[in-house]
Design brief:
This protein is an alpha+beta fold and about 240 residues long. The protein has two domains: about 60 residues, 2-Layer Sandwich (Alpha-Beta Plaits), CATH 3.30.70; about 150 residues, Leucyl/phenylalanyl-tRNA-protein transferase, C-terminal domain (Aminopeptidase, 3-Layer(aba) Sandwich). Helices cover about 30% and strands about 25% of the residues. The strands form two sheets. It has a seven-stranded mixed beta sheet with strand order 6-7-8-9-10-5-11, with helices on both faces.
């Protein structure tokens, strides 16, 4: 990912290391760049996500904080299941676990080559910060196995009844889609309002995600955060595809 930061061009405020206050995302540009700097301590990250803000930056840039408009959300009951993918799920060749290999999942997300990207935004300090959030019970992973080998997965943050998806990877065809389907089903059963997919991609739209205006997203996020959280390890969550 090429550098996206030019302080003079964006005229955005720096964050203090001593305050976790962010600018109001409702007044951000549609591009969504809100602020830069600060750090990736757990308190700041959780404050950011509670306000619909996430970090995303290139190696060598300061930490950049974003809240784009529109936002891409997947409502669990709207997951789009194509006939060809239904056959994959019925085959039983994939198995799924939760929170079994968080560190390996995030490392794969950081290192698996992606078309059009020369480097990863999941830099070392991002990995360390999310591993810490996992240890604190906020960040979670979904692992997909084929013949006992980890072949796909995803990770993100859960608070209230909102899940903030960060990244996914796939070493074999369909593995990341299986992870996303498993997450969607389990969170739907547990009463989650949505999975935040952040920015629009054709892949996620093909799975049923839809764009919503940022103000609507922030209103829905406020409601989701009033509900009980599933804090702690999710290793006891189970999923098996049902027609």
């Amino acid at each position: 990912m090429a550098s996206m930061f030019d302080e003079e061009e964006y005229l955005i405020p720096p964050l203090s290391r001593y305050s976790y206050t962010f600018p109001n995302p409702r007044y951000a540009s549609d591009e969504g760049l809100l602020a830069y700097g600060g750090d990736l301590c757990s308190s700041r990250l959780l404050t950011a996500y509670r306000n619909g803000i996430f970090p995303w930056y290139s190696p060598g840039d300061p930490i950049l904080w974003w809240s784009p408009n529109p936002r891409l959300l997947l409502y669990p009951h709207k997951f789009h299941l194509r006939k060809s993918f239904r056959r994959v799920l019925r085959s039983g060749k994939f198995t799924v676990t939760f929170d079994k290999e968080f560190s390996n999942v995030i490392k794969h997300c950081a290192t698996v080559p992606r078309e059009g990207q020369e480097s990863t935004w999941i830099v070392e300090e991002i990995q360390e910060a999310f591993i810490r959030l996992h240890e604190e019970g906020f960040a979670h992973s979904v692992e997909v196995y084929k013949e006992g080998k980890l072949v796909g997965g995803l990770y993100g943050i859960a608070m209230g009844k909102a899940f903030f998806g960060e990244s996914m990877f796939s070493l074999v065809s369909d593995a990341s889609k299986v992870a996303f389907k498993a997450l969607s089903d389990v969170l739907g059963d547990r009463g989650y309002d949505f999975i935040d997919c952040q920015m629009k991609t054709d892949h996620m739209v093909g799975l049923g995600a839809q764009t919503v205006q940022r103000d609507i997203f922030l209103d829905e996020l406020h409601e989701a955060l009033q509900k009980p959280s599933d804090l702690g390890n999710w290793h006891h969550f189970t999923w098996k595809y049902k027609d």
